[in-house]
Amino acid sequence: MKLKAIASALLVSLSLSGCVIHVGKSHAADVEFKEELTLNADSINQLLVENGSGSINIIGVEGQTSINVKAHVWTDDDRSHKLSLTQSGDEARLVAYASNSFGSWGSSNTKIDIDVTMPKHLALSISDGSGSINVESIGSDLDIDDGSGSIELSDVGGSVKVNDGSGNLTIEKVSNNLDITDGSGNINIRDIGGDVVVNDGSGDLSVQNIKGGVDVDDGSGSLSIKNVDGFTKVLDDSGNLSIKNIMNKVYIEDGSGDITVKNTKGLEINGSGSGQLYIKEINGPVSLDD
Prior knowledge:
The protein is mainly beta. It has strands at residues 2-7, 10-21, 31-40, 46-53, 56-61, 66-75, 81-88, 91-98, 111-119, 123-130, 133-138, 142-148, 151-156, 160-166, 169-174, 178-184, 187-192, 196-202, 205-210, 214-220, 223-228, 232-238, 241-246, 250-256, 259-264, 267-270, 277-282, 286-289. This is DUF4097 family beta strand repeat protein.
């Protein structure tokens, strides 16, 4: 079955295939099928994605002129979900969720996994309820607001902003600044071309190979920072802290846990709480206020 709809005077194509209906008393989704959407992107500068539940995989492709979506849908009823790709001005909007994900009716069992390829130069904004997110090869800015689920980001040509409730984060190869607000989960950050700002509730944090400065406000969990060109500031409530190879001054406020600092251009510690303090190769002024 093929459906065609016109959105903002542009043709959006959709195909439906592989419909499977399961009969039984299970509370799991009873209907499974796949859909495809395509939108010409010649006049588009940004893609907005809204997904209620399900995985998101987005890859930017150099030279591609359209946004292509493949969706895998599990639901109780083939009418209880919404899947659309439309254009308004210079923005494209992809909506993929159960009708009750952002509203008050529909199936709570609906899940939609989406795979997207898009022109690499487009900016990208994602609003996601739950499910893993993977984004690769984006040439512009990236903004993510996520409830839960792991996030993996790589090769982003602009700045990145992430607001995450829970789930592990892996972010690498960002050309500009990185700003993260995270509730819980481990965070791994490397190869960032600008400044890094992290406000983290709990979970281990690793930051390395940063061209700008680093500003971390951390609740609990171990923290490792190394190979940073700019000023590094850490406010840490609990957990061991290791800071090495900083080509600028380091400022630390710590509640509890061991602190290791090696090879920096200066060091100021304002309250080291409980735990052992190890410092070595500080090539600049040192101020320790316990």
